[in-house]
């Protein structure tokens, strides 16, 4: 369909009447029709009211709850979706600086609506340099594997149309006081000059094994390693070095803890490898202008399109399980005919049945005055950095994971960068680990961005060129030496620093615990404000979006009875999307075949 | 061939003011007398040529239910243009429009082009003479113009029914959109957008065809 609108277009039916000039109201000056109530003074439009009744009431617009709302709305349920905040996103919000300030105050005051977070420390040394609305800060930043249930859902639900996605190719591992970029694609392994032929063979063998891990005979072979830790398995079977094990387990696998079993480790590396080469030579995407906060809004909009009603600024006060009436703080009430779902963060005051949250995630978010483009792949604006266990002076037991978001991500102004550090370590130890990782990041970016930072003497032998001529690789051992002696000539300017702890019911490794939703209510709580409320979990420590669709589906089948018709939406007017979704689902197989062939040839 | 600019345009306004009808008129030159409240169709594209430039409008129409809603900022974030629509026979819809303008100025991108549109103009004129009939309208032209002048908006009264001024609104917006939304070359920004509908193994290359 294409319409051409220009000055010479044909007159439409309207123009058979008096000429445009005569009829154009904006030029009819001096002629004022009668009986016009003057509108100045009537300031407020009719305020939105809460409907009397709904099938499902959902409190909290976090990502899980928003996906659930959209799924239920498309399935035909009458959904009322509220949030206690004046913005969308709840535990996965994307906030401006002013909103972050208010958020911190609320967290530290333990206000209802901010449950599950604690000890928020905010440091803004130069408030005049921060223009609040120039920033989009994620409370729960995440990256998305190309081969994932969420990406398929985004396409199927068409929510992807509301968003913009960009790629991340660079995954750095911190080792021996310097960063190494992981050789993660088959091409890179072949061309990596620092790997011996034997190591290359072992690595390729391992990757082949991972990609075939779902075939029957490999699955059988894996049975015997059922309870073997993953790191032990690769050490024994493939004789890889500790550095390579770190890269596989924590950088490619993005494992948040060293305690992972072989099966889990393999599925994590498989996730990385199979995500390659679908949209390009990168495994991961992120959404521009903010992560889960933007995605939440996308699903909320989808839910609204399907008929859900939205209301912000509404904190649940109580739920009466006898007459199924939910009451909000402003006194309004709604009858819930099916189920009330609530995020633990927005539980009513004096709630008795919020699921136990025994796991912690501690986050340190900083904005620095440096573009950090040295860390990004050409043309990209984001990267991932991992500090494996025992690589920090604090002898970190758990890895520190870092998402780096440059200004091209739309989240901060040019010449600045946001660093999101997190760990599943607990308490003060967690904060120490994060501070030390931050110090290392600072040292590293100053070194890499400063002219004359490299004061080692390099000979021709230290510099090797990639076969395609694009990048020269410098002998990293020699550089590592110089890095240790490096004294930065400038200081890194921090514009913003935020540290906080979040509690969750989801284990650091693994997905949502189904039992959370099957729980029986505590005896003696029949008259409590939240008896029979179905609580979601808080966001997990997982750095990717994995686990979120699973949780939404579990909640969905708890309410509907099964997840058979979860997002069973048929957009009849456009086949393109469903085709793409189908392609995406099946691409794993195609990819593997291709991968196999090439490797067989090489090995 | 002329340059093509892609423009994200959102429609805002109270229920039943004729947002979807304006889009239908613009995209298909059609009108439906008893149009259902919008549910579902929330995204349309329309290409049009203004002088030498081709503009592809990505039109985001609000769903009817969203009249209750606190609209997700996602909806108008990064929109280059907005139509804030009211019904010239409904004063409440004009007040709602004023709130939308305020919210857009507070939340949307700084350079957004906003057009204030008083729709259903046909209801206040005599179809034979084109003269206004006394007592039909509830929002005066001056009222609309004053708001538009104060807030720096384009202003039109339209009729989706008679097609009056509808194309003019879109043409005027198209003219106001800067030729090249100039992006500093220092750091990548708009480059690197991934088209989720185009896996590389299928489309046979990275060059996404814009047609
Ligand atoms: C999370 C966080 C990280 C920080 N990181 C840095 C940093 O990297 N570089 C830097 O120069 N300054 C940092 N500070 C602040 C720093 O410790 C000093 O407060 C600051 O340099 C000003 O010193 P002062 O003596 O003028 O103020 P002070 O009177 O010492 O402190 C001002 C306020 O900051 C709080 N505060 C002080 N130190 C910390 C801390 N380490 N963690 C949390 N709260 C603190 C105090 O309780 C007080 O409310 C940080 C603060 C916070 C909250
Ligand atoms: N007379 C007249 N009627 C109109 C005009 N535009 C729309 N209508 C009628 O007004 C009603 C509502 O129009 P819609 O286009 O659905 O309004 P909307 O703003 O999209 O409404 P929602 O989707 O519910 O927000 C329909 O019955 C249309 O036929 C117009 O210019 N003149
Ligand atoms: Mg409509």
TrEMBL record, chain A:
<dbReference type="Pfam" id="PF00996">
    <property type="entry name" value="GDI"/>
</dbReference>
<feature type="coiled-coil region">
    <location>
        <begin position="424"/>
        <end position="451"/>
    </location>
</feature>
<dbReference type="InterPro" id="IPR018203">
    <property type="entry name" value="GDP_dissociation_inhibitor"/>
</dbReference>
<protein>
    <recommendedName>
        <fullName>Rab proteins geranylgeranyltransferase</fullName>
    </recommendedName>
</protein>
<feature type="compositionally biased region" description="Basic and acidic residues">
    <location>
        <begin position="7"/>
        <end position="25"/>
    </location>
</feature>
<feature type="region of interest" description="Disordered">
    <location>
        <begin position="1"/>
        <end position="33"/>
    </location>
</feature>
<dbReference type="InterPro" id="IPR017230">
    <property type="entry name" value="Mrs6"/>
</dbReference>
<dbReference type="InterPro" id="IPR036188">
    <property type="entry name" value="FAD/NAD-bd_sf"/>
</dbReference>
<keyword id="KW-0175">Coiled coil</keyword>
<comment type="similarity">
    <text>Belongs to the Rab GDI family.</text>
</comment>
From TrEMBL, chain B:
<keyword id="KW-0547">Nucleotide-binding</keyword>
<dbReference type="InterPro" id="IPR005225">
    <property type="entry name" value="Small_GTP-bd"/>
</dbReference>
<feature type="region of interest" description="Disordered">
    <location>
        <begin position="177"/>
        <end position="211"/>
    </location>
</feature>
<dbReference type="Pfam" id="PF00071">
    <property type="entry name" value="Ras"/>
</dbReference>
<feature type="compositionally biased region" description="Basic and acidic residues">
    <location>
        <begin position="177"/>
        <end position="186"/>
    </location>
</feature>
<dbReference type="InterPro" id="IPR001806">
    <property type="entry name" value="Small_GTPase"/>
</dbReference>
<protein>
    <recommendedName>
        <fullName>Vacuolar protein sorting-associated protein 21</fullName>
    </recommendedName>
</protein>
<dbReference type="InterPro" id="IPR027417">
    <property type="entry name" value="P-loop_NTPase"/>
</dbReference>
